[in-house]
Amino acid sequence: xxxxxxxxxxxxxxxxxxxxxxxxxxxxxxxxxxxxxxxxxxxxxxxxxxxxxxxxxxxxxxxxxxxxxxxxxxxxxxxxxxxxxxxxxxxxxxxxxxxxxxxxxxxxxxxxxxxxxxxxxxxxxxxxxxxxxxxxxxxxxxxxxxxxxxxxxxxxxxxxxxxxxxxxxxxxxxxxxxxxxxxxxxxxxxxxxxxxxxxxxxxxxxxxxxxxxxxxxxxxxxxxxxxxxxxxxxxxxxxxxxxxxxxxxxxxxxxxxxxxxxxxxxxxxxxxxxxxxxxxxxxxxxxxxxxxxxxxxxxxxxxxxxxxxxxxxxxxx
Length: 317
What we know:
Blueprint: H1 2-28, H2 42-66, H3 75-78, H4 80-93, H5 102-110, H6 123-127, H7 129-144, H8 158-184, H9 189-204, H10 208-230, H11 240-257, H12 264-271, H13 273-283, H14 289-316
Helix pairs in contact: 1-2, 1-10, 2-4, 2-10, 4-7, 4-11, 7-8, 7-11, 8-11, 8-13, 9-10, 9-11, 9-13, 9-14, 10-11, 13-14
């Protein structure tokens, strides 16, 4: 049993993500090895490849351990499709670093266009990022709500949790993107990784299959986080989009499957942990990078320790 979990929920997702990261790096880099590609679509395409690789990685535990078909029967498994959709849309429309010649940069400055990541040619795409992502996130919230004869007594919970999944997913994704675009693209995935910790602990106390799936998401995100640290401008930070929505959907599933009556503040803490850590990172944006990273790491560790203590304490009671 333990070997199967390590194979399907740890090793499999990790290998898939490394392959996707290497492919995305090949697309994002100049083919002559001089740095970032001058193709304005190279960054968005690399980001989409990373997201697709992350989604393929978290599908490995579902296929290997849960034996799912193309359309799973359980609500907590069905969210894999809308999470992939919202992840691809947000990654495709996000600002990405592109190489521009001096002549192009001069023309952009003369037109009063801001410098920085992203391409003015794709401004229309960036402008619609959160509109398109918001629409797709509604599908995540809808499919995260379990339905059927066995769930009728929990229907009153659906409104609140649908709003929580959509709202918290968008807020977490947006603020982590701000960290990435403020110079944290090499380490922002560690915030997303911390955001997956709370749902995993909750799932471990509620439902084994969901916990194994969360473990696969952690393995996939960890591999990309390490890759992003080693290789700058690899586009790996885009995996924060599906990871953000996976975390909130898994939290909702954990709530529906648990028999424990945890307090509302605990679920709010689990849902918004990435936002709390990102706020610390942004508030310390003017400090040294080491100070910013250490403060964010300590904040995440403290919040996760409190979540784990409260959930495990409730389990013992």
